[in-house]
Write a structure and sequence with these properties.
By secondary structure, this protein is mainly beta. It folds into 2 domains: 222 residues, no CATH class; 152 residues, Sandwich (Jelly Rolls), CATH 2.60.120. The N terminus is likely disordered.
Amino acid sequence: MLRLILFSLSSLLFYLTPVNADLYYDTYQGTGATPSFPGNGGSLTYSTKLSSGTVSQLNYYWGNGTVLDSGRSERVIVNFYGYITIPSTGSQDIQFYLYADDGVYMKIDSTVVISDWNEQGAGTWNYVSTDQTLTGGSTYYIDAWWYENGGGAAFKLYWDQSGSVALVPSSAYSLTDPSASSTSSATPSYSSGPTSAQQTRLSSAISSANSGESNSINIDIDGDDNDVMITQAGEPSYLLLNVTGNLNSVDIEQDATTVGTSHGHYTEAEILGSSNSIDLLQTGSGNKAAFIDIAGDSNTANLIQKDSGNHYLMLDFIGDGNTATVTQEGSGDHAATIELTESGGAWTFGLTQSGSTGKTYSLPHSMSDGSTVTGTCSTPAGCSLTITQGD
């Protein structure tokens, strides 16, 4: 996905972000031997994430060192999740092997394949799954939990895919289901990926960044319990915002009543953490584009684009117990592309598009059972989903 980054008030640079790569991870503080965790129906004693990010491969031997970027070498829990694609073709029996210290728990789709949430030193493939009949070329959801109590720490994932045990290669992992974008349109107003009209609006928004005077802001916030209010009024407005932490409140308002139709507002925001809230209001007569990435649990997003001009929004929401509301209203065309991913907890999402005959939305989202759902809710976690397209 092409994105615009504001390195200063006057300089702009473009870069390309890959759609699929690696696995997600979240780290939490542990409590000792056999700590409670959500994978087996329990709950985390310390639910605030220490860190989140992506990894290219499950191939770690930390010894007595710090686990990932958690800041801890002892009493730490890590959840790895994403997708794994089986190479070759046809049905095949695959066994997974883990070299791990201490406990592990792993699901492929909704099937538990390894469950040994106990103290144990790392040995040669000391955890082995039952045979799994999987289809070559198909993609499955992977959800792996691991904890370290004391002493050494290791986590490596292998498989027997072709008659010999080998480390699962990084090419097998992905953040989203690679097959999800290939589904066909469900209705004339729905697309499984950005349409040509959406791409045209995106190109127009990016092109606007290189023309005319602009109000440009680049803000980085690192910490907890911050209240941030950002107001931009003028022609046009560009904002790049990065927030890392918990319990932060961000209020963004971009308003310009005199901008031309080729100008408008552009916001790119990345929120990493839990229990954060973000409110975005883009108003005025120009085009509006927003790219919002949120990773964490119990976050809330309220995103509004209104008045004339075309509206384009892309929201990537990862985590559990999150709530998002998107409103696009006015005489211009509306386009929204939404990616919702959860790993076992329900979320609530609502999209309203009104006031225009040009309305499109894309809503593929991934559930913890490995399914990709378009426009409805699915088990096991469940969700609340409302789509309204008015006059």
